[in-house]
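As a warm-up, study this chain.
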Amino acid sequence: MAGRDFGTVIRNVRLPCAEQHSETSAWDIACLGGRVQSITSSGSCMPHDEATVIEADGGVLVPSLCHSHIHLDKCFILGQCDPLITGSLPEALQVTNKAKAEFPKNVDNLYARATYLIRESVESGVTAMRAFVEVDTTVGFTCLDMGLQLSKEWAEVCHIQIVAFAQEALYEFAASTEPGPNYNLLCDAVSRPGVSVVGSAPWVEPDRAHALKNIELILSLAEKHDLHADFHLDYNLDPDTVPMVWDVLQQMRQRSWYRSSGKRVTIGHATRLSLFSSGEWAELKRATDILPLEIVALPQSDIYMMGRPDPSGRVSVPLAGRTINAPQVYRDHGVRVALSVNNVENAFTPQGSLDPLTLASLGVALFQVGTEPDWRVLLRSVSTTSKEAIGVIHGDSVSGKSADEGDGIVPRVGDPADFVVVHEARRWQSAVLSPGFDRTTFFKGNVVARRRAQRWNANTGGEITN
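Now compare it with the structure written out below.
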């Protein structure tokens, strides 16, 4: 029998309020039953004698972070791959497939890498993630079994959505009229308890016609098993290629897949959308106001892989145009775009941190945004917008609300008590611009991780401790 919940109080914390100078105010946040019970001026909250009390020491509290798109099985495998020669997408697929063939032979390594990713993510402030695990004739259900097991082990610390993901083609050949063995395995996978999402990468199919069939198959599986759907889609920068997002939306309309269903369709990468005109963004906005389609951009991967020089050395798309500019798209068109890490230290993304706040910080320079409203969009993109994209929380319209109420960054009484305190920050802006290392993560009102740096330098002296 579970013990009585006496709640948690976070004392002397600053909130990410948009009003000027409001960051100087300190607050006490009381949490009970996994939700915010009260928000009062610092020192005024009188907790129960047995409540957990956390001293924030003036740090900044922001919504907990979210990996809206991360690969749990392919992380930290660069050292297991053949050396990269070109760094191209075809090469990344080739060396990764070779390394992936070893996964079933070394399950302990698979678990260890995935566990490390989850642990480091939680300690950075992540309490929700959509984790892709591959199902195909190469790995069978090895990655899926790992993901389902870890989602159970970490359930009280982090909400992990498992995606049964077909990275490989569902149709074996251009002449295929019926899906092949990868599809049969996927059908088995999505029927397993604990799978929340079915996903695929339609662009790997032999041609566009088969890619469209791939989309139909995935949406049908999602409907049949009451799952979310998630596509790696429109992963190109070719202005002459018609974006497949329109085909996904058409399929959703035909299936009457509206927001009331509770299940979402998410597209990841979507780099082709960075070439959209204002009219195309307006059309997408009208569609997504009715249909639950979400967009997740993956800057660390997209700017590394997309827009490479052609044989003549010409670069057709500037660096920032190789991924979706989330602040500009929201500012100009009202479309919210989540940002996520995607891959960590593999051939698709050799570089980059798994900390979502460093991704928001990268966005400041990449998108050349210097205003606080744009910084709030970046903070939201790796926290609440990402949670909305995977269906963990449901966003509200910003119409008629203040900036604080509308962007969901400032907690309100009754909200889920999922936060991260950035202890070294004294303004919310610092959480985006220069996120500190020392953090405390809260999930359902409970402390689930605490990270502190050990410091020593020769100038201040003292003894070095191991």
